[in-house]
Amino acid sequence: MDKIILLTGATGFVGRSLAHKLCAKELRLLGRTDPKLSEHRFCQAEINGTVDFKSFLKGVDVVIHAAARAHVMNDTTSDPQLAYDEVNTAGTLNLARQAEASGVKRFVFISSIKVNGEETEVDQAFTSSSVLKTEDPYGISKAKAEVALQKLAAETEMEIVIIRPPLVYGPGVKANFATMINVAKRNLPLPLGAINNKRSLVALDNLVDLIITCTSHPKAANQTFLVSDDHDISTTDLLKMMTQAAGKKPMLVPMPISWLKIVGKMTGKQAVIDRLCGNLQLNISHTKRTLGWKPPITVEEGIRRCFIKEEKS
Fold first, then answer.
1. Apex CA 56: angle with CA 54 and CA 57, to 5°?
2. Could you confirm whether 138 is annotated as catalytic?
3. Per CATH, the architecture of 4-164 is what?
């Protein structure tokens, strides 16, 4: 029998794709703005520690909690940590507690690899059992939510599934990856041809496929899963791949990383250079082994789809 699924964050980058691909007897959407998916029932509500969700949770089998206060550029909030905690920690736990009280069987929480940290040593990838080592308000709020959800799972019969993605890319992506797409289209000569780091990414279609798998797979219960394309890539190779997907020949100048870091210090862009040159690897062997899962598309295909979507729009 098809499950009734409640999805939060349906207007977000990941949530919108999920809403289109989920097959359920009934899919209910909860968020601040209506995603205009007329075939699904929508409830307008904030995610915080006080909202009453009970009427909308009635009869629901699975909750996919994708809504979150994400990274805010130039955050002017007087207390950023409090703002993140109200949505990502208190809001998540409030929803989960009410879900459990309403008879929801499984709660799938979309967390972030940021709960483990911002970078790894080369070939020292994060695993599903890596310690929590957060470095920013967003990561801290997600880590707090994970701990609270695991405690709830230990005290009740509701199954908790935690998924930690790295950077998610795909058609309609925003922020830094969107900037890289524009750079690839313009194909300007850049001094980024000698960055031999290793980073894990996840294509939107791969993440969505894993989330859907976790709504019903019996072995997903009370597990934490890392997800990626299972193909680590350097910044240089990523830019080359993106430029080729844009139909151009890459023009990347091989400048030593030490020089790039000097330029970063001189221009006040050290943090940007550190991100471009740093490593962030995820080991998804636990995910693959436990669920019998593998990413349905390659990183090359994921990047290609970013540019096909843009050409059609």
1. 65
2. yes
3. 3-Layer(aba) Sandwich (3.40)
